[in-house]
């Protein structure tokens, strides 16, 4: 497997290197105009050769729109879309969608992120579009990714922990429960796996269903119990919003069993305590208070305030 991954990486980067020498002069001029923010040259070249709006223009496989988003050039993005750039066209190598390129920037609370998201969405960029990506093995965030995987831009925004973009997409009415077509994993499951408690709460506020299951019968609680770190806060948030701790997956495992299999003592205590508590509604008017006392230590081990 390591040999295959290494061969794939070498082929990927060798192709980029060779491609960088093959761009015609007009493509290079178009790319330079984007870097320089020269709207007049961009418009003149695109009107003379419209295909410049759709083809790869650099060694990373970016389209003109993808490059402009990457550079955070708001006016250039507006210009390219007005000229006819496709807001859903992925780039040429890793197949990144324009919204995914924006998600990777992770400029928290950046006005540019808000502006670019609004511009792309207004132009028809689809956060629930199914895109088949080629992951860059040198910069992979998630070890479970393979060189080729399927995901929506919305799920990618969560994977890259871009809370600003996640909030924006939720506000715009994205389908928060659309599952990954390969695994059945939802946005809430992914955020729970990664331990992104703040994003978990954003998704729950947007109506994400805490008891939806993936293709193996796992809920968000299963994913949190099997995810990175202890995920205490994620699990507290899920339980407070109606997650059922007693749902078993196709293998017959509940989240508690998963936590035990991972030797996660803190989660075992939390889930054991929660198993006897009636789940709350997924939409709460106020924060509930739960207290569970360990009879052996007389200490509160499970509390929401």
Automatic annotation (TrEMBL):
<feature type="repeat" description="ANK">
    <location>
        <begin position="183"/>
        <end position="215"/>
    </location>
</feature>
<dbReference type="InterPro" id="IPR002110">
    <property type="entry name" value="Ankyrin_rpt"/>
</dbReference>
<dbReference type="GO" id="GO:0005634">
    <property type="term" value="C:nucleus"/>
</dbReference>
<keyword id="KW-0677">Repeat</keyword>
<dbReference type="Pfam" id="PF00023">
    <property type="entry name" value="Ank"/>
</dbReference>
<dbReference type="GO" id="GO:0045944">
    <property type="term" value="P:positive regulation of transcription by RNA polymerase II"/>
</dbReference>
<feature type="repeat" description="ANK">
    <location>
        <begin position="216"/>
        <end position="250"/>
    </location>
</feature>
<feature type="repeat" description="ANK">
    <location>
        <begin position="60"/>
        <end position="92"/>
    </location>
</feature>
<dbReference type="InterPro" id="IPR036770">
    <property type="entry name" value="Ankyrin_rpt-contain_sf"/>
</dbReference>
<protein>
    <submittedName>
        <fullName>Uncharacterized protein</fullName>
    </submittedName>
</protein>
<keyword id="KW-0040">ANK repeat</keyword>
<dbReference type="Pfam" id="PF12796">
    <property type="entry name" value="Ank_2"/>
</dbReference>
<dbReference type="InterPro" id="IPR050663">
    <property type="entry name" value="Ankyrin-SOCS_Box"/>
</dbReference>
<dbReference type="GO" id="GO:0000976">
    <property type="term" value="F:transcription cis-regulatory region binding"/>
</dbReference>
């Amino acid at each position: 497997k390591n040999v295959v991954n290494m061969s794939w990486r070498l082929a990927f980067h060798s192709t980029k290197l060779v491609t960088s020498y093959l761009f015609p002069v007009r493509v290079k001029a178009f790319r330079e105009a984007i870097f320089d923010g020269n709207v007049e040259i961009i418009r003149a070249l695109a009107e003379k050769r419209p295909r410049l709006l759709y083809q790869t223009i650099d060694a990373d496989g970016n389209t003109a729109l993808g490059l402009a988003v990457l550079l955070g050039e708001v006016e250039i993005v507006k210009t390219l879309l007005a000229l006819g750039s496709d807001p859903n066209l992925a780039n040429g190598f890793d197949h990144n969608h324009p919204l995914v390129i924006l998600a990777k920037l992770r400029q928290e609370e950046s006005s540019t992120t808000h502006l670019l998201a609004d511009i792309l969405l207004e132009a028809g960029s689809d956060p629930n579009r199914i895109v088949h990506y080629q992951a860059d093995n040198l910069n992979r965030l998630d070890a479970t990714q393979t060189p080729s995987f399927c995901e929506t831009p919305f799920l990618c925004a969560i994977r890259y922990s871009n809370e600003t973009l996640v909030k924006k997409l939720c506000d715009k009415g994205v389908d928060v429960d659309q599952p990954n077509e390969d695994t059945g994993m939802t946005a809430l499951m992914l955020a729970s796996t990664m331990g992104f408690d703040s994003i978990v709460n954003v998704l729950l506020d947007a109506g994400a269903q805490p008891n939806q299951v993936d293709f193996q019968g796992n809920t968000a609680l299963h994913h949190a119990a099997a995810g990175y770190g202890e995920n205490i806060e994620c699990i507290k948030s899920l339980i407070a919003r109606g997650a059922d701790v007693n749902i078993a997956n196709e293998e017959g495992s509940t989240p508690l069993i998963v936590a035990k299999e991972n030797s996660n003592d803190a989660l075992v205590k939390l889930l054991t305590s929660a198993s006897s508590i009636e789940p709350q509604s997924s939409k709460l008017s106020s924060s509930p208070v739960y207290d569970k006392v360990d009879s052996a230590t007389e200490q509160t081990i499970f509390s929401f305030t």
